[in-house]
Amino acid sequence: MVSLGLASTAPAYSITVTLGLVILAVGHLAPAALLVGFVPILCTAYAFRELNRTMPDCGTNFVWITKAFGPWPGWIFGNWIPQIATTIAMTALAQVGAVNLLSLIGLQRYADRTLPVTCLGVALIALVTAVAYRGIQLSALVQTAMVTLQLVALLGFGIAALAHHGATAPSLSWFNPFRFDGSGPFAESVLLCLFIYWGWDAALTVNEEARDRTRAPGRAAVISTLVLLSSYLFTAVAALSFAGTGTTGIGLRNEDNVTDVLAALSPAALGGPLAKVVQLAVALSAVAALLTCVVSTSRPNVSVAVHGALPRAFARVHPRFRTPTVATVFTGALAILLLTALTATVPSFLGDAVLSIGLLVCAYYGATAFACTWHFRHELRDSPRALVFKGILPVAGGLMMLAAFARSAVDMIEPSYGSTSFGGFGGVFLLGIGSMALGLPVTALIRIRFPDFFRHGRSTVTDQLVTED
User: Fold this and answer.
1) Do the Cβ atoms of 14 and 22 come closer than 8 Å?
2) Within-domain flag for 467
3) In a domain, 468, yes or no
4) Is 113 among the domain residues?
5) Three-class SS state of 425
6) Tens of pLDDT, residues 153-168
7) Is-contact 328 133, C-beta < 8 A?
8) Is 468 helix (H, G, I), strand (E, B) or coil?
9) How many Å apart are CA 66 and CA 62, to the nearest integer?
């Protein structure tokens, strides 16, 4: 289950498309941003662990937030926002995977063109949807192999970069969070780091398929975050030591390198043949994350349907493969539709997509953290452990998520924020806040179609654990 959480996070992909953006915001303080961004993630991971022990339902956020705060918050923050975040992420993953695969096989001229990249991205989504449809065991084997390659590639790159002639010695000042120049760059870098860590909670969406569903998924989620922190810090320090923060050549503030750091640095650090291994790791990282997105998004839809908040067809389980049928196909089809729409209207959406996902992650992680403390509020005096892990840490995580969300949302309104703008508003703001706001009319329509859930969902949502249809 740890491999599932790591695969969904896509370490090689996440660090290569995000590290440059973090360095663009805070320079050598990128390791400090990674540490600060990890704190709310770890606090939230404990909230997920405690909630999963009590309510091990594959609906995860949807069930927990509904139980704590009611059907409307449950549907919006527990279902709509995670679904939208994952779908946007799948479009970016498909694009990165397609570009790296085309470059890897010597078709660089096609990797720079929108149509071939989009067509291959659609094919990758269709492929991983088919694998997810065939069963969790096949998915787990594929993910474990891909995650292993990613971690080995990041380790190899880091060692080579640090040992390279001319690399500077790492400095402890890079880890000092009190050296940020203002709250704006600090908030932006933390939001980006939240995206880097996002995905570890995928392990909990298959909790009902685990042998120890009350403990193993939560433990896997916490372990995943610690593994990610170690690998990201090592890679960031190695990249800074090797390339620096210059704006030319391999410098990490060179605009040509910002959204694909490993591709820019690997040839110089490792040489041609080994650089291809890193590029393969990034491509497989994107594909592995695509696969996990399909797996982790289809399972909650089963729960939502079983609890009466989606058409019953979403709860169908294949009699042989024991996987959601309609929910899996729907997830892949929706990602294909969004990928096609975004690349047709905004070909350079990747950077904005990454930033907007961070905003969505803040919203639903924060809501889940607060739901944990509210749900266990009567148990906080039972023991010091309950106070810390069910009260203090989740509330701290929720407040940090809320602060990052508020500050970042204000900054994102500016048309200069990100790479696109429309009608005087930043494209990141419109994609992030706009997709969240769209959840209100969608939920209103769902309420008309499924009134019983919105009347009684808070009291009945955990009466039935989801198994199969």
Assistant:
1) no
2) no
3) no
4) yes
5) strand
6) 889 999 999 998 888 8
7) yes
8) coil
9) 6
